[in-house]
Amino acid sequence: MIVLGVESSCDETSVALVRDGKEVLSNVVYSQIDTHRIFGGVVPEVASREHVRKVTYVFEEALKEANITPKEVDLVAVTTTPGLIGSLLVGINAAKAFALAHNKPCVDVNHIIGHIYANYIESDFAFPALALVVSGGHTELVLMKDHYQFQVLGQTLDDAVGEAYDKVGRVMGLDYPAGVFVDRLAQTGESSYKLPLVYLDKEGYNFSFSGLKSAVLNIINKAKMKGEAINKENLASSFQESVVTVLVDKTIHAAIEYNVKQIVVAGGVAANQGLRKGLTKAVGEIDNLKLTFPKMRYCTDNAAMIAVAGYFKFVLKTI
Known about the structure:
The protein is of the alpha/beta class.
């Protein structure tokens, strides 16, 4: 089965073609990072206009790269939630128009489920599995007993982890998207600043990052008032250590409690080197526990993951 996936939930316009939920034939992504850099963040109206401007081109490029004709497509899968409403509508309308024009079935896909299924491109799932979803808008621990069987164990009560990274990076004066540069600085710094480890309920699986973010802002503001210099590398390292420690501790605790066979990491922050190192080390100390990260190109928003998730949703509904 060849699935055409469409993703336009935020500031990437993407179309992909995937065979049987595994083989990526093409995955074309048009990023708007340069467009939004001057604003320091994504402007919804600008994003939706950019999607309109590029969506037809991205469709054509994906089909051309895969060497697939519309007639050979068996299914269309499109992100419908969550995301920026204007951006989502562009992708939804384009996907439904393609499906209608070529008489193909069309399935809607949750963006977060898509991120989870980005891992399936690299490795089959071993159930029960635990998904750590970490992105600019979401931080969740999700138990999967089988394909498309999800139980949310915990989530952020305020800022998502990616949002916290971006806000901290912005206050530190880093370029957009700031979260990426915080991670890079952290690799060269030392954890010399005292920052809190926010666990909330030690036994629970909810997260909170607003307090940690505020602690970083207080350090920066106090230094400015006293005319003192901030060591950006060390501050980034301290912030990242606090974030990664809590994420790893709660993920490992949940993996043990629910006796899972695999941990999958999903979302843009899955590309974070500190998180990758921390989880890899922790999982390495546990027998018979598998850990997977998507390849870097599948961590950020892309249509290949939507096509994979759509494939399983369609197949499971038609069994």
